[in-house]
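Q: My hope is that you can spare some time for a protein that puzzles me. Underneath my words sits a plain record pairing an amino acid chain with its backbone structure tokens. Those tokens are not coordinates but codes from a learned vocabulary of shapes. Thank you; the sequence and its tokens follow:
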Amino acid sequence: MKKMRVYELARELGTTSKKLIEVLKDMNIPIKNHMSSLDEDTAQKLISVLTGQQKGQEETTTKEVDEEKLPVEEKETSETAKAATGVEVQDKDTETRKLGRKARKASMEKAKKEAKEEKKEIELEGNVTVNELASKLEDSSANVLSILLDLGVPSHINQELSPEVIELVASEYDVEVSYQRDLEEEKLGDTETESDDEEVKAPRYPVVAVLGHVDHGKTSLLDYIRKSNVTDSEAGGITQHIGAYRVLTDDEGVIFLDTPGHEAFTAMRARGAQVTDIAIIVVAANDGIMPQTIEAINHVKAAEVNIIVAINKIDKKNANIERVKQQLADQGLIPEDWGGNTICVPVCALSGEGVDELLEMIVLLAEMNEYKTNFKKAARGIVIESNLDKGKGPLATVLIQKGTLKIGDPVVCGHIYGRIRAMVDDRGEVIKEADACTPVKIVGLNNVPQAGDQLYVVNDEKFARHLAEKRAQKHKEISRKSSPVSFDDLFEQITKGEVKELNLIIKGDVHGSVEALQDSLMKLSIEEVKIKIIHSGVGAITESDVMLAAASNAAIIGFNVRPDTKARKMAESENVDIRSYRIIYEVIEDVKAAVTGMLDPEYKEVVQGVAEVRQVFKSSRVGNIAGSYISEGKISRNSTIRVIRDGQTLHEGKIASLKRFKDDVKEVSNGYECGILLESFNDFKEGDILEAYTMEEVKVI
């Protein structure tokens, strides 16, 4: 028998790795984990003990092990691993954070001296978000988020904080915290602990997040695993939204979170790591570790979840697996074959090589950690993504974490409430129940919740509505206090040259994208120019957005959304700059260039005309033709056309044919009807808006 790993022997014997490790420890045989190798003699002795063939020889087995040598080797290996994992580096990182906190405290000394001698006290009530805490501390949310990051707690402004974390943040400001009792919130919290004894828990599927640098193959890897193709549906081939998918492997199951890999999605990636049990860090064998890879590793470490590294693209000519392992070791992730504890699996997402072993490692880790939950209690989950559907209303993708969600359940989700009217699972099937670790899209909420909000099932809808409205009122009061608008001060500072601010309004198709874009743009502020997000939201760009932009001298950024006709006309009259994008890093690059004064003149679109699709004519020879009415301007044969539905851009392309009755024409003006056939697009619907535009060279933002 050749050497074999613990998990391989466990599989052959039909038992678990955990059981084998316990037996080996009883035999005084040092074993690190399920990936440790066993020689032939040790394996045979273990088999004998487990099969009862060695009756009374356990003591002899123990004596046969070199009692002196093995502990020394174990000790030496431990010391080597300790040195290689960079414990001292981590200590230095901790010291750096401490120094950063000291610097921040020093900057607050002036305010402290002006304060009263007694310690300041703030009073909190119920669940407290980052934004609410910042308001109570009379500081900006950005500063509080920075402190949380230093404390190893990556957050977003609407994330609820535990009392322990609040105490830590308050200590940075030298203030004491007291709590008002909120009996209704306590009642909601009681559902967390009721009937949650170990005996009522049952095994559940592990939740796995896939993270890494952009274009290293995260989504392609999931495509192979679940035999679908998400990559083609994403703009630019980059995952823009979080998706949750359930994958069955033999008798086991795994829930995958497909989180975006670009650095712009830091907040979404951090949220994904917080709800997961296992994180797969994907690293391309030809590129090695990149900045976003390090960022992903840090998020996973902060979340304290198990890590598996998938070394992808091993089929490339310049692939170098050993170099990747060295880079991992530099980040404190020592590969198992180097004496560490980090599982590294070489894979090829295109051919599937190594994918089975990767799934086996996931199942093995889940087996070792014995993930359990209570399936019988009232359901609790977390919102992964949310959006507004014109036909179905507010939609939310929720990962159920405890209990079972059922049709008809009254729920509260942040300051949103409702009753579950319909549920669809990740395969698009309508279901009546969703148990723990099931990703499900729900219908029935009264509004669109925030990504990251906790969803709770409560006793009745009346209580859910009351609690949600109470939270909404509290949120409104906090926002009013924490977001004062003082245009006079702003203009005075700009005039004096003391500070310049680039005011921005961000609108997007889903909350996750808006949040990620907002976080990324805030990081671009420099000493000379500060970026200020004065408003953000989901949906098409409206007149109210333009009015706010005009009043605050702001530019509007639309991500996968467009302004309606009234908003566009108002923007032209008020000279408000509206920028539309479909790829998030293009936004970041443009704004970064703007604040550093490096932007060259670029081309900006100018709308020539707008048409409304009033009837769709089907032709077996040429495809669908849009019978359209020109509502403003004109449409020319050589125009570029944008197809807009419910404020979102579906297609951009050239006109294949423009007709008036049966005649080909060069252009059609306002007030006339025409037939429009586009290149590579047939999916017209009545009510679609067709925008014709040209590009002109202008200065940006």
